[in-house]
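does this look right to u?? pyridoxal-5'-phosphate version
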Amino acid sequence: DYDLSQLGSQMSQLTGVRAIMKDIIETLRQAGGREFINLSAGNPVIIPEVEQLWRDCTAELLASDEYGEVVCRYGSSQGYAPLIEAIVNDFNQRYGLSLTDRNILITPGSQALYFYAANAFGGYTEAGTLKQIVLPLSPEYTGYGGVSLFKEALLAYKPTLDLDEKAHRFKYRPDFSQLVIDERTGCVILSRPCNPTGNVISDEELTKITELAANQGNRNQVPVILDAAYAPPYPALNFTEMKPQFGGNLLHCLSLSKAGLPGERIGVAIGDPELIEVLESFQTNLCIHSPRYGQAMAARAIASGKLGHIAENVIRSYYQNKFTVLEETLDATLPKDVPWFLHRGEGAIFSWLWLKDLPMTDWELYQELKKHDVIVVPGSTFFPGLKEEWQHKHECIRISLTATNEEIATAMRRLASVVEKVYSVT
Ligand code: PLP
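got this back:
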């Protein structure tokens, strides 16, 4: 028995999807001979070409004179210089930017970056006022639920819904009639493409958010932390056109996790040197710097152009094909008279299904699907920071695109028959 601080007890709780994962792991452990189709996973698939790229980069590193420098010495907090240089060159060339090394920070995974940003810009000021961390479009990445040391700082906004009733499709949009970004806002965070929904908010919508955050009268501007974990140029998990945005108050944040390197923990922030310096100091205090082994591998993969090439030509189509299998199976098997709506599959490695007027909760549906050996994630875990009650929260599920085509098709057929039964009871 140990006494925990208030922060200690808060940070030792699991939030959102991590809490569900416990139930899933338990279910799989007690499966006996049953074969579950697990569509809860957020772990990317090990695609052979991608694994080979990282294997080659490792082999080159091991064979080079650089090896000792990389693993036997401390480095700078900002990151490993060859990786920073590779990113600067690649982004300048792709997007016509004029970045220098002062615009870049490497972190041990992008989750760490959101933790630094949420606490550097959100929470209590020296004067004691609470600065909010605004999530402009809920549902959002469940990992934002635990990033702030002050839970009360997180504030999410309900979206508006674009419905296509005939096609059984929908799309969330930011609700600019409700969204407030003002002197109470410390920072804004959003994922694009979005986990869990696969949404890509439009270039205009993103511009509108960054402008709202920049134009604070004679006050300082509010940073917009743009989570590009699924965006181009790597992993390029966008299935619709999207233009990455840079500059001003927007901090563009990459992750190499979905480009096949989640175990090496590499996140990258690109933006205003003033923002980078704040986050870099935060990192120095926390962990000195990111491990350099993965950074040295990544420097090679990026500088050679191979990572960008594989992302566009292998990773993107791999998941896009999975979405097609899922959507075609649902179209063919879900009853037309049930008000089901699949979110437009615009990117990421998940799909999001809304079952309007579902006669049970999302948690009960999750349990029901488990009885048919299918595991999904109940949607209500993906609304961190949403303070108001909203029936919609309990009518959605997240379905991972990391299973095989056959598994996805079989699971969606089972889901369709469960859904048909559930609605016909009422
Ligand atoms: N942001 C989003 C939207 C994610 O889906 C994930 C991981 O699933 C992360 C951030 C965390 O990624 P990283 O491995 O870079 O910490």
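The first strand starts at residue 37 and ends at 38. idk if thats expected tbh
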